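Issue 218. Parser rejects a valid record. Input:
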Amino acid sequence: MLHMGGIVAGIAGGVIGGGLRQMAKGQRPALPNLLLTPSNALRLTNGLSHMRGAALKLGQMLSMDSGIVLSPQLTAILATLRDDARPMPPNQLRDVLNAEWGTSWLARFRKFDVRPFAAASIGQVHRAETRDGRLLAIKVQYPGVRASIDSDVDNIAALMRLPGLLPKGMDISPLLAAAKAQLREEADYLAEAGHLRRFSNLLSGSADFVLPELQEDLSTGQVLAMTYLDCQPIETLEAAPQVVRDRAAASLIDLVLRELFTFCAMQTDPNLANYRVETATGRIVLLDFGAVRPVEPGLAAAFRALLNAALDWDAAAVRAAMLQIGYFGPDTAPHHQDLIQQMFDLAIDPLRQDSPFDFAQSDLLDRLRDMGLALGTERDLMHVPPAETLFLHRKIGGMYLLATRLRARVNLRQLVEPYR
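Output the parser choked on:
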């Protein structure tokens, strides 16, 4: 609480100083613009990185907001966040593993690298080799993360209540409650182990994907042990031939469709670090199943109805499905409903064409961003879409960004037709 208070105080101080400087120049300061400064972005990013845990994770989750819920100013500040949490020191690592495995745990390993090769918001990952020859990746949770979730989210909420960042009267408590529930799930490594088992079974024998194998004997609520896979960052595909990039993007987009319409469960964290490429086979490695959320049959059916209506150019059915899903509510002003539906029509257009969509040559993402930011400035727009819809869109948006980065060309119409 004290650390977050320091961040908020620093941002407020920056706002006051910037406002005084503008007034000295005879300018009328605009509060949202004062909040969006490089120094304030640095204060927030550095502060959350040092805090680790739920505060950093929630900041990353919110940074992928479309602009409908958050103001452009807060969205831009949070977008500076990356998975750059500070790793725990060796003595703290030892204490955690002593508590989870017992004090003689080191005798089970031939090698255990105390230096993590990956560190994120909730835990860090170490490479190890057991006495029986297994090469493992072992994810260890930062101590105290699970106990601090509620207070961390509440303290982030205090930041969001700074004047000018949200429309007056907007109720984001359902979104924050969903974020708390999601973070509790991500901090339960036994639950993540169950998700890993499930997705391993669903994708068993896949020519496109490979998952690490869960090591039950070493996994606990705060330690997740998996086989270590020799792989490279998925960004290495940027230098691959066009056909390889196209297949990777198509496979990942099809996986999202299967998660929504077939698996009834979706991994909702599209962080690039969760996707790698197996060195030996070229298959896409899927990592981190802490953010798996169930997709209720009713929600899947509503999205199928929306997809069919959009592909059939049925505007009335599109609006009815969007209302059912919760893009807007019955009381949302008609002009706001129109704006949100216009955004959807623009986003769905690549799915209507029969030829491959060239992600690299399209400015669709820029136009959607501009429309979303403009909508975010509508201070009388109070509606907040359901958390499940926002989590799903976070994944879809992440896949679009990845396909754009790979400069992929994908026939999206062919991909979605089997799910109608």
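Fixed in the parser; the record now loads. Residues 231-420 form one domain.
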